[in-house]
Amino acid sequence: MSSLKPLSPQEWESLIDDYQTNSTQRLQKWASLNYTGISLLDLSLSSLSRKDFSLSVKLNLIVFIEEYLQSCFEEDQESEACSLGLTRLVDSLRGVVQAPIDGVSVTLLLKEQFLVCVTSVFVSCVIGIDGNLGGQFVKQLEGLIELLFSVINRPNHGVDRQTRAVGCECLRELERACPCLLAQVAGNLWSLCQSERTHAAQSYVLLLAQVIHGVVVSGANVSIVNSSMPLVPYNVPEFLINDGGLGKEFSDSNYKEFRRVMAFLLEWPQYMTPFGLLEFMTLIMTLAAVLELQTSLLKVQFSGLIYTYDPLLCHTFLGMYSRFLDAFDGQENEIANRLVLISREAQHSLVFRLLALHWLQGVIELVSSKEVGKKKIVVKMSLSFYPSVFDPLALKSLKLDLLAYSSILLDTDRSKVMINMKGELGLDSSNVVSLFKDGLVSVSSFNWLPPWSTETAVAFRAFHKFLIGASLHYDTDSSSAKVPKDSTIFHTVQNMLVEMALEFQGLVPVIVAFIDRLLACYKHRWLGEHLLQTFDKSLVSKLKVDYRLVSYFPLFDRIAGTDTVPPGGIIELFAKLMMFLVEKHGPDTGLKSWSQGSKVLGMCRTMLLHHHSSRLFLGLSRLLAFISLYFPDLEVRDSARIYLRLLICVPGKRLRHILNFGDRVPGISPFSDQAPQILHDPKKSKTISSYIHLERVFPLLVKQSWSLSLPTLSFGSGKPSYIESIQDSEPPPEQTEVDSQNLSETERVYHPQEPLRVMDSKVSEIVGILRQHFLSIPDYRHMAGLKIRILCTLRFESEPFARTWGVNVPANGFNEEDSLPAIYATVLIFSSSAPYGIVPSYHIPFLLGEPSRNASPVGQAGSQEIIPIEDKSQEEIRFKASVTIELEPREPVPGMIDVSIESNTENGQIIRGQLQSITVGIEDMFLKAIIPEEVKGHAVSDYYFALFSALWEACGTSASTGRETFSLKGGKGVTAISGTRSVKLLEVPAQLVIEAVERHLAPFVVSIIGGPLVSIVKDGGIISDIFWKDVDSDSSADVTTSGTNMDSGPLYLKYTEDEDDRGGHINVNKKNMGCFLILIFLPPRFHLLFQMEVTDVATLVRIRTDHWPCLAYIDDYLEALFSAQR
Fold this sequence. Notes:
It is a single chain. With about 1150 residues, this protein is an alpha+beta fold. It has 42 helices and 17 strands. A 6-stranded mixed beta sheet has the order 12-17-16-15-13-14, sandwiched between helices. Helix 1 (about 10-20) packs parallel to helix 4 (about 55-75). It is elongated and about 155 Å long. One of its GO terms (cellular component) is AP-type membrane coat adaptor complex.
């Protein structure tokens, strides 16, 4: 006995509750009091015999004992405590069973519950899953079986007949868990079955059938009739402990004994309950199959079960039918009609009617798989599957499933027998479609019910069944996947879904969920893609563009995310929607425009993720450009501009990586307000100029490393000595006249008027041309000035970049484009100490690194073919980004532009550092003179020639326009011309001079004078649309001065003023071919004029300019210009 303190009923309830909750803290309380292990089991078993405990407490204790012992076996099955516990458990059971019934502390219910509890412990813990005893706990098992035999070995005893039935069920469970456990006492059990006449006889018969089933299936060599072993004492058969004696063949005598027992058993079904008959038939069918009995016996005896009104009996018959199909050949139609009749009879319970339809579907599948001729039954019965209007929805759903199966059977079976059968019954494809549509009549109310209604769910479930019925998941035949696409039902469902989406916008979410279900299935994904293609072709073009179009956005999103659907249709629809939103935008539509515009951009992002950029580029770029320019919401415009730049600049795979990477920034949750950590390493950025290069597209002729920068010199008047700066204009004449009228006579004496300027017609014409010209030059102080652009390229070397920034290098090097590193969101920042104004930064969204110089071209690794130079240059362009530097010079001088870079690597690091500076030369300042708006067409060449002549005259030393001021564009600033001149003799052959001018100065040539030179240049065809003047080569060279400073004889260059005319000169009068007149505009308002007098051996360049500091660079420029041609 246990030494623990007995517990009260309330304490037992608390302990049982603590063990069931399995709380460690609560169990420790009982463990500290030693209420664990075998002592707790002894206490609980002894409490069952206490008379002060109520029956409910004892029943709870029995359940606790069962759970507690099972947990002990799970922890340690080999311990002696388990063996001792089982022994005491059997002893306690024996005491309870043998105790007299007083109706209070001991009842039949208590005995039966304890029997079931102990049997459950032995089945789950002793015998195990595989039914192997293993020689362990055999004595305890034998004691339990002996006790159960003592309970059942009192046939026809009326008082405890229920207890005896429970004892039989306990023995049956032990036999089921360990077959042949009771094989040696089968004869005794048969005798008990023959003696029992109460309702417990069913349990005796089932026990005998279970024992015979175990013997026949396991092949135990035992005799049933001639068995002399008594029930008590009982010993476990040796072949179960030593693994021998099973799997033997039966002798003829054994077969006779089995048949005798089967004959006895088949007399009992009429006395059994439906539950008992179901268990009985499960055993009998196996015995009949193993013993090769005539199944016609079973057919005759049990065929009437199908006509009963009990679901269990019908299920029993159908189980026998499915097991012995050949025995019921020819009765398929009768069975199917009976099941249809059960489903139609409303007096039956709904569960029974639903089961009848499930059974009917199983019968149809069995019949259809048997032979093609049997399908005629399904074809004939298809009209009887229509659901009625008042059927419950569950019943309608199953009937629609049967219609789906039948219609697909008719539509997809192409055998000759089936074709002839359809002809006999008058069925064709139109009848199949009618079968489908008429079946949906019972749930046609889904047209006006909300999407969440049950009728709508049933209808779309039917759609799904009709679509996938011919392509089931367990069907491994690849050809079956093509059947639904070609079937009539498939096209009918497609058209119905399109019509529903057009007519009922509320059903679009249901249609989308239907398509998602197909897309999520690995076998039916192609069906969903084909449906999306149908919607793209048949629905998108029919939709009306208005605010209600947002209802179709979920469907558009699926179309955008499917790469097998061309995106052109929805892109065109989105463009129309954006134009509609722009036109209808107003104070009340701001939020609506933002919402729909954001959703459209989300679908554009989806297209970028799932389609190739080349497939989207034309249409999507136009759509994004329109949104970024005209959409009323600023946020939508900015997002569209970002997507447009990504589409244009970033290749497809990299673009998809960026868009996916945006949703999973490492270390930052989507709802966190914390800013991401900036990963910038200054040490890595020190050497970036060695592998990141910004280079000019067109190298400079003069590699100047200096710049002439003069301070503003003032002498009393405050004006610079070398240049007359732009000044504000004087008050208008009207204001001057008004002020003069207000002056007194005395004041008039002391305010003398300016002297009148007298000029001839020639000077007046020059001034007029100059005024017209300067009015076209913007005043940079009050408006945007003229800009020059320097074209450059940015590139970086892959290998040093990867080593520095930790980019993974593939095993085969950077030979594949996908393996090349890249930089993102690059910003080039420019600054300069030269007078270039504010230089705007330049942005580059994406740039791939250059492959290594010794590697094969990307995509041609291992190829030994000769690559043309043009292809090589095109290959190099892919790894360079074009950069344009815009300068707004305040003075035309060379200088240096400092360049700094900020960019991002693929792994999130930030690049920041200085690159090599860019040199700005004097030739970068060369621009064509601005043409006034009123000068057009052929008048341009005459205008340029006239402007050159006027500027040449104005920049001369004896110019008559010295005090004249000219207004600039904008009317607020005026300027004057202060010219200077120079000369340069170049001993270069005429051909080289012509080639140099045509190559570098062709846009600035305004006129060519001289017959030989005109002929040569015209034949070249490079220079055109200028003023041509064919004159005699012996005429004056300075044609622009009309006789002024004209030398008809040989040209002499004097080094001193007092040098005579006969010594120290250079004679260049070989053969005067002609003259180039070149007009160059130097921003912001200056000019450079060349008059090149070309001879066959030398060229004399006369230079005039209104910005004398530029002469410091012109000498080197001219030397480099002509030396480059040598």
